[in-house]
Amino acid sequence: VWIFGYGSLVWRPGFEFTSRKVGFIRGYSRRFWQGDTFHRGSERMPGRVVTLLEDRGACTWGVAYEVRGEQIAASLQYLNMREAVLGGYDTKLVKFHPQEKDAEEPILALVYIATPQNPSYLGPASEEDIAAQIIVSSGCAGHNIEYLLRLADFMRYFCPQAEDKHLFSIEEALISILPCLYYTEESLEET
């Protein structure tokens, strides 16, 4: 079984796997439209994490993990808790295209996608509003800023040829806000 990750799974799968491949799926765009009140946020201040939006001409880069034997049940149980129960994601089968030049056919992979029917679904907002929400959110897995920056780093280092305008626009908006926060905190310490 192959499992496709396009958010925190690209750097922290949390389950044992046999192999991993960087690549993409077609027909979906990655969006910071899913609320998170557990891993990267709280009930009071939900974080923003990514989900996939059906988008015919788009492709989303990520990592596919191959799980075999006893790894299958353990990884699916873990992901069903992490994504489906806590995160409210549905599962779909998608065609994964490995980045490797000698890859043959696409691989069928399982992917978790939050839908607008999900109670934590936040939907669209401006890049600045999403960045502002990310800056103030933190959960049991860490700060929401870390989530955004690790995902941007993954894209930059493992998929340099790929574009993800939404992701990089939010990163840019976050970086433009952070110096103001740093200056404000420094000013408060001096008084």
How much helical structure, as a percent, in the residues?
Answer: 25-40%
CATH homologous superfamily placement: Gamma-glutamyl cyclotransferase-like
How much is the radius of gyration in Å? 17 Å
Instruction: Assign an overall shape.
Output: globular
Poorly predicted parts: 182-191
Main sheet: strands, sense, barrel: 5 strands, antiparallel
Portion in strands = 25-35%
The tally of structural domains comes to 1
CATH architecture: Roll
Given helix and strand content, the structural type is alpha+beta
What is the element string, with H for helices and E for strands?
EEEHEEHEEHH
What is the fold-level CATH name, i.e. the topology?
Hypothetical upf0131 protein ytfp
The CATH class name reads Alpha Beta
Terminal CA distance reads 58 Å
Number of helices: 4
- Widest sheet: strand ordering: 1-3-2-4-5
How many distinct beta strands? Answer: 7
Q: Overall mean pLDDT score?
A: 90
Which key terms come to mind for this protein?
191 residues, alpha+beta, Hypothetical upf0131 protein ytfp, five-stranded antiparallel β-sheet, two-stranded antiparallel sheet, 7 strands, globular, disordered C terminus
Describe the model.
The chain is of the alpha+beta class. The chain has one domain: Hypothetical upf0131 protein ytfp (Roll), CATH 3.10.490. It is built from four helices and seven strands; from the N terminus they run E-E-E-H-E-E-H-E-E-H-H. It has helices at residues 70-85, 127-135, 144-158, 165-190; strands at 2-5, 19-36, 47-66, 89-98, 107-114, 138-139, 142-143. It has a five-stranded antiparallel beta sheet. A two-stranded antiparallel sheet has the order 6-7. Strand 4 (89-98) and strand 5 form a beta hairpin. Helix 2 crosses helix 4 (165-190) and helix 3 crosses helix 4 (165-190). The longest helix is centred in the last third of the chain and has 26 residues, at 165-190.
